[in-house]
Amino acid sequence: MSGRAAAFRSWRGKASSGRRTRRPREPSRTSIVAAYARVGEAVGLPAEQVRDAWLAVQKGTTPDAFSEAHYRALDLLRQSEDQLESVIRRMVALANRRYPPVRGVQRFFYFHPHDMRFSEEGYPDGTLLDRLLMRLYYWENKREDAIPSTVQQVWIDDLTAISAACGGMVIQCLGVVRPSNVHLVVKPLLELGEDAA
After folding, report:
1. What is the CATH number of the domain that holds 109?
2. Quick one: which of 135, 176, 129, 143 has its CA closest to 157?
3. Which is deepest, 10, 46, 141, 190, by most CB within 10 Å?
4. pLDDT at residue 47 above 90?
5. DSSP H helical segments within 139-196, as ranges?
């Protein structure tokens, strides 16, 4: 194998044996207790009731007190990152139908890399461009029970610092977006701007 071919295979993440190897990643860290509190706040239930409902359903039983709020809490806890991504895509599509085009193109442009293997490690999942207000929004999508890796948190912290330095007028970092706080993405989609009708 030539040096150039070996370098390409190495760049693509393949060992000399031809098998694909993965970059070492930090182990996933979760906090279900924090998830119970976030979801409880989002649906108006105490964290203990969210926990009891979740544990009961995991055991295959129905909790004694089961309301619509309990159902919404379980739905938020079950939602995957892919499902959260779909919700955000639908919200952006609805916002683009609601507002007139800006300079002949849709007002909002949303980007989410589908294959993170070729992206910079830790780069935020969501990037939203508002062409009317000339702003960029960044955030990291996570399930309720997951927290950002150390590298992801560094990106979030850096983008938050840049946002603070420019007064949030050009770049805004929304931090970690979860099913319970997806309203953080809805807020920029509802801003009218000075030139909007």
Report:
1. 3.40.1350
2. 176
3. 141
4. yes
5. 150-165, 183-190
Q: Residues 114, 170: one domain?
A: yes
List C-alpha distances in Å: 66 to 27, 33, 53.
35, 20, 8
pLDDT mean over 31-60 = 92
C-beta separation of 122 from 154 below 8 A: yes
Same domain, 69 and 122: no
Find the domain containing 42 and state its range: 15-78
Does residue 165 belong to any structural domain of this protein?
yes
Q: Name which of 180, 188, 116 is nearest 142 in CA terms.
A: 180
**What pLDDT shows up at residue 30?**
56
pLDDT at 14 over 50: no
Q: Which residues contact 38 (CB under 8 A, 6 or more apart)?
A: 144, 178, 180, 181
SS3 23: coil
pLDDT of residue 12: 40
Q: How far apart are CA 2 and CA 9, in angstroms?
A: 11
User: Is the distance from CB of 111 to CB of 85 less than 8 angstroms?
Assistant: no
Instruction: In whole angstroms, give the CA distance from residue 159 to residue 79.
Output: 26
85 and 74 in one domain? no
Provide Rg for the chain, Cα atoms. 21
DSSP H or E run through 54: helix 47-58
Could you tell me if residue 54 is inside a domain? yes
